Amino acid sequence: MTDEIERNDALGYPILSGEIRSELRRFVQAHRPIVLLDAGARPALPALGALRGARGVIEVRLGEPRKRLSTVEEVLDRLVAAGADRGTTVLGIGGGVAGDLFGLSAALFMRGVPYAHVATTLVAMVDAAVGGKTGVDLATAKNAAGRFSDPAAVFVPVDALRTLPYFRLREGLAEMVKHGVIAGGSVFETLERLSPHAFWRWPWARIVPASIAVKTGIVARDRLESGPREVLNLGHTFAHAIETASGYRVSHGAAVSVGLRAAGLLALRTGRFSREEHLRVISLLTLLRLPLATAQSPRAVLDAMRADKKRRDGVLRFVLPRAIGDVEYGVRAGDRTVRAVLERITRLPGDDEFR
Amino acid sequence: MTDEIERNDALGYPILSGEIRSELRRFVQAHRPIVLLDAGARPALPALGALRGARGVIEVRLGEPRKRLSTVEEVLDRLVAAGADRGTTVLGIGGGVAGDLFGLSAALFMRGVPYAHVATTLVAMVDAAVGGKTGVDLATAKNAAGRFSDPAAVFVPVDALRTLPYFRLREGLAEMVKHGVIAGGSVFETLERLSPHAFWRWPWARIVPASIAVKTGIVARDRLESGPREVLNLGHTFAHAIETASGYRVSHGAAVSVGLRAAGLLALRTGRFSREEHLRVISLLTLLRLPLATAQSPRAVLDAMRADKKRRDGVLRFVLPRAIGDVEYGVRAGDRTVRAVLERITRLPGDDEFR
Predict the structure, then answer these.
(1) Taking phi first (over 0 means left), then psi (-120 to 50 degrees means alpha), and beta for anything else, what does residue A337 get?
(2) How high is the ipTM of this complex?
(3) CB-based contact, B151 to chain A, within 8 Å
(4) For the whole model, what pTM was predicted?
(5) Residues A136, A146: Cα–Cα separation, whole Å
(6) What is the per-residue pLDDT across A121-149, written as a single tens digit (0 to 9) for each?
(7) Do residues A95 and A128 touch, judged by C-beta distance below 8 A?
(8) Which residue of B has its CA nearest to A77?
(9) Pairing of strands A90-94, A34-38
(10) CA A112 to CA A87: how far, in whole Å?
(11) Does B109 touch chain A (CB under 8 A)?
């Protein structure tokens, strides 16, 4: 490990963060992949260096509405046309949707060919590209068609973050706060010490690998999401319901931020979290300019929660903090308590939230 | 093991053949599956007994042109609508296309739910439902999108064969001859002793499990098709090319039968097979009323072979018999030799083929 590059092997394949140009060049020369390029990731290409040696580049326009099996089929047909066969390695370049969709395409092509991913957005770096989940949406349910499928390698060129506007960073920052609450300690404290200005000078090469390590540590113990991995859904039961209730006008990152506040409120109400620590989480979300409230009606959000795929036997279950660094999953909560929390998150916090 | 039911565990999950009603009833009561029913398999339902206890039945019209990702998406949406979740078991009922498509749907639904299959056609019983391959076609390539995904169980109700017309049995008979040539011995000889009339009185409950055992024995040693499993492609390089050249008007079973003759001819020409054994194979195909010749032009078939996904580094490779019971894979053959064989299979065999 040098200052320039950090390597994480907790999941059995390398996740390489930092100045990854030379590693990526070696990978391309060794495997001669066909590249699937998310059209939105073009600005990141200079940060990756040359892709000389690739057998071809297929550029695909993505975005959430295109995260469907029909796009997978289009990608597979283009792989055939580009001469891909069972021996081909696929290298995907792009954000979260790209990782989900290109990864699934490689998992299906000729019943599975090796796949490596270059994450070009913050949310892909710290969340989507880590953990082996791939998937697309159905008309009737988000992320409901996919596979657990480990990549051969993940590249995390933190330099590419400089090519993104702040509102796209926010998608990843909400997940980083989540990882901070789960892990606590220096992971959370380092985020608290970031300057609220000058995000382009943040120590990305340190905070990104630290956030990745939180996720890989958890996923390594529960690949197929049978239990412990559930903690990574902190804030997400609320977030998914807010997104659904808004007709997906609220972004995932914004919804996760509000969801983290909601999880804190529910933990407070059920007597498992301190007001002081709740204040620290709210303050960090504020420092990172992440939203704390939603315009969605409590009733619509509750209805969406009831339809959530993680609900079993009719009872809502949550991931809740007991402390920063100590998160519990599978916590049952009654509809009345949940509704009271949903009322609160339609407004910004008042002093009463913390005392 | 009783006379009525035969159990094969070579692949780590049970393949149950024969009088499977009571086993199927137990499975349905234990797992309360959602049933995916191939509309074409309705006539087989009485042979399966009641499906009481299933959480729902979704009937799907299939057929080769529907073997696409768009149909998978339709199935997944209908599973959501039927209330399926991550804890749901799916039970598919149908032929080869059903096993491929329902199996892939279950492998993708919520990133994979348990799947069991009831094979209702001969080709599904002895081939498609055995070995964990699932897949659909692309516009540009057959079976090019899929997964290796083991089922929880496979049910083989041989009684259901009585509900099929002879031309549908032929699809499976060609694969049974293939298994006979691969395994030799009693597997081949039992087929040779079948009466050319009265197929409804054939000892299906004996010959079907014997044919399945040939495939499971090979697949068990090579799950992911890295080498030895290749022998199961005996006759198939020719068959796929004939199907493609015909625009899929020639059925797979008919093409495999012609392909088995072609493999024998190529083995003869390259000095690895005896005329006597070639005659035995041709005689068995004739006894089973399987075709020996194709109307497709040698040039069109050769072109299709050249585009086959199993071709590597520009050389055609074949699976060829050295004897009945001894099959070799990865045999390279030059275009001229192959073309001479393709000329032969445009006509029925003359005496010169055997002396």
Answers:
(1) alpha
(2) 0.89
(3) no
(4) 0.92
(5) 6
(6) 999 999 999 999 999 999 888 889 999 99
(7) yes
(8) B140
(9) parallel
(10) 10
(11) yes
